[in-house]
Amino acid sequence: MTAVTYEELHRRMAGAIAAERDATLDLLGPSAPAVRAAVAELLDHRAFAYPLSVLPLIVHGVETGALEPALPLAVVHELWWTSACCLDDLADSRGAYRAGDLDESTALLATVIAGTPLSLLAVQSERVPEPVRATLSAELLRCSVRAAEGQLRDLQGRAADASCASVVTAYLGKSGAPFGMITTMAAELAGAQRPRVERWREFGDVFGVLWQLFNDQEDILSGRDEDLRNGTVTYLLACALEEAAPDATERLLTLHTAAKHSARARADLTELLLAPAVLGRYGKDITEFRDRAHRIVDELGGHERYLLVLRDLVSRSSRLLLKPRRVSGSSAGLPRSR
What we know:
Elements: H1 6-26, H2 33-45, H3 55-64, H4 71-93, H5 104-115, H6 117-123, H7 130-156, H8 164-189, H9 194-221, H10 226-230, H11 235-243, H12 249-258, H13 263-273, H14 276-300, H15 304-317
């Protein structure tokens, strides 16, 4: 059987997802035209490079062989991540954020509506069977709390106290929670038994960590360096700290602090983060998360056509994109080799 990529699956389903999105916006009702317009503008403005809204369709396909019943969840996935990303942008904008034609205040209001009220309307609509509406609604609310906890851990994280384990805990919240939510919801909608539902949650958690690691790499490769500018404690930084010789840790921490305001510090820190020993550890750990995700998929089983798509998605999300750099003389000796 020839595997279809998740991007190809999204292209096939894009029209149906768009129609479901419009139907979901209509749930806001005739008395809220301004709210509808603002949320629609927010969704149009936030176009995602990777169409992960197909993930709940894939999970439902694995369980039942059918994609269409999970279309409301594809929209919920879009709404949740649009809201989360826009909140993140608003926090970083220092009062200068705009989303298309929306000013900051309107964008904030639309973000709040998209993230919770509209998502709840979607899972409580007639498009979702009545017996699972309450379960899906509760799942959405639990995810919001768990993701907020992860985001706060991320915001309050101190590089001096960071470890790979502590960063994974934060990632399991801010990224694992929403992916675990949507895979769990799709399994619930498909009528899976509780052990399988919890296994799907585990898959979503692991995939969320993988996707955060993928996203962290793209931030460096794109040159945006948002993590360095914001002082974020990433898994790559934790790897560098754990691999550093004891007398080199202080320089890493100093550069991490200075990188918020200094292009030179960001360049020097990036050089250390891409040292061969650091990337060797980083790549090894990505492989372990990937293997765990694949193992869960294999143990779950299901409709092979969509299992192939899911395996492809995991593989594409777990690539080591960064390339090692030789550390220059001024920074030599920081990461130790094992």
